[in-house]
């Protein structure tokens, strides 16, 4: 496993971050078995959110961490202020309410990295930066950032923080993968994949801001299940979402090139796709949603693979 450092967090942050949507209090034995195995492979960092499983995922994660007695060894990413069916919720009140909910579900005193799950560009950044600083000063969070925030809004927030002597956003969590995201899978998502987002990637490279990239394997597009001739046959929700968001001619060409390079290097297609993400000139931590220890082990192996800039450009259709 490889690790990095996030300002404000005094623990090693694993470059592979395990998600939590597959764990549940309804199957604590199976959930604990999966988390134990992934933790034993060196994963220290786990991604959660206030909206996942209506709070059940946070409760399951908290049970595991507390029963294993490893709070000082793991980095918990929490997310709050997600929109609901009625309104956008990026307000100091909703941020505070979600944070207290999550702490109660986890039964933790603090969350290591707290991300705002969505943005509302109509809301001024000042009160948002201020309330996050209040929670950091109170010890409820160690660091904070934005998930699905544009780089311009993060820059605006950090300019406000600098002007007022406050702590800035230290991390961002956009979508990024080898596959271009044609349509956002859920409302309010931000992607930095594809040629149209080159400006965002350049900004992140210049700032050296840590990126916790979600759907690093394009929601299963690189699993090999999706083909040009079977896109209307899927019934599973996540498979249909991958078709909706990623199925397009350019991405199928990227998939074919990933398959060719995988055969040359003796790797799997998902390993090549993940190696592409980790070989960028960016400070990346890849979010993965492994449902078995074997899946996580295969992804961890991809961390040892470094692709050349020429290989990355070829995979991304930027050279022949």
TrEMBL record:
Where does the NADP-dependent oxidoreductase domain start and stop, copy by copy?
27-315
Gene Ontology cellular component list = cytosol
How far does the signal peptide extend, from start to end residue? none
**Pfam families under this entry?**
Aldo_ket_red
User: What keywords are assigned to this protein?
Assistant: Oxidoreductase
InterPro entries in alphabetical order: AKR_Detox_Biosynth (IPR050523), NAD(P)_OxRdtase_dom_sf (IPR036812), NADP_OxRdtase_dom (IPR023210)
Q: Which Gene Ontology molecular function entries are recorded, alphabetically?
A: oxidoreductase activity
Listed Gene3D superfamilies:
NADP-dependent oxidoreductase domain
What name does the UniProt record give this protein? Aldo/keto reductase
Lineage, top ranks:
Bacteria, Bacillati, Chloroflexota, Chloroflexia, Chloroflexales
